[in-house]
Amino acid sequence: MKIELQVTDPMLLRTFLAEQAISKKSLSAIKRNGALLVNGIRQTVRANVVPGDVVTVVLPAETPSASLVPSEGPLEILYEDDALCIVNKPAGVSTMPSQLHPHDSLVERVLAHFREQRTAGIPHIVTRLDRQTSGVVIFAKHQLIHHWMTGIIDKVYLCAATGRLPARGRIDLPIRRKSESIIERITAPDGKPALTSYLTLLRSEHSVALVRLHTGRTHQIRVHFKAIGHPLLGDTLYGTDQSTGRQALHAFQVTFSHPVTARLITIQAPVPHDLRFVIPI
């Protein structure tokens, strides 16, 4: 994989690469198994670059984990380029393998897609969803791209919650793992900071809300909505409602600045059929 970067100020190539958030570890790997070019000519990090120069970073090839088994399961691609692959995850598919569900994970389906397309790169999970949550999942095609994506994504979900939510709200409650469980989370003063905001779109026997995550704790939306007395429909871990076959939660939209081109990108995943009767958006 190659990345082209435009120089705007005179400096050492080493300094320029550091300003692009290329870590010393990544730079060492690039020098060992990749290449650095300035205007098409190989250079060392001690070279000087000037405005107008084009720096090409040839990223080293990566090998996927031996535990990943490419899966030919169905894959809905919402967006793809040389750096990213963004897909619409169905409910009932794990983002990554687990002890209970060791194969046919989403990452293994993406790996099979990469091999079929002869894509240079391996899938690195940027955003992940619970097995029974549907919607947008982002994969980077190299570790460096994954690093560049950290913390720059605006995530918006759609959910259906029990009861009648206020018109809007902010839930600022720390979250930690429940002591006697390896899965369940709770709100607690000694937990990690967690902030969720929401806008209620519909209210009838239940409420439909547009939810924005400001932090990324495990089960954050599910735990926060339980904490305010409105657990999600179908969420039997944090509530009692069984009107849907799974928690009524869908990762609807992501917005971010592309890590290579800096172009603002917004990707949406339509509400799946199994939730349209409770989230009629």
TrEMBL record:
Alphabetized PROSITE patterns for the sequence: PSI_RLU, S4
GO biological process: enzyme-directed rRNA pseudouridine synthesis
Active-site residues, Swiss-Prot/TrEMBL: 130
Alphabetized UniProt keyword annotations: Isomerase, RNA-binding
Top-rank taxon: Bacteria
Enzymatic reactions: a uridine in RNA = a pseudouridine in RNA
Enzyme Commission number(s): 5.4.99.-
Free-text function comment from the UniProt entry: Responsible for synthesis of pseudouridine from uracil.
UniProt name for this protein: Pseudouridine synthase
The organism of origin for this protein: Macrococcus bovicus
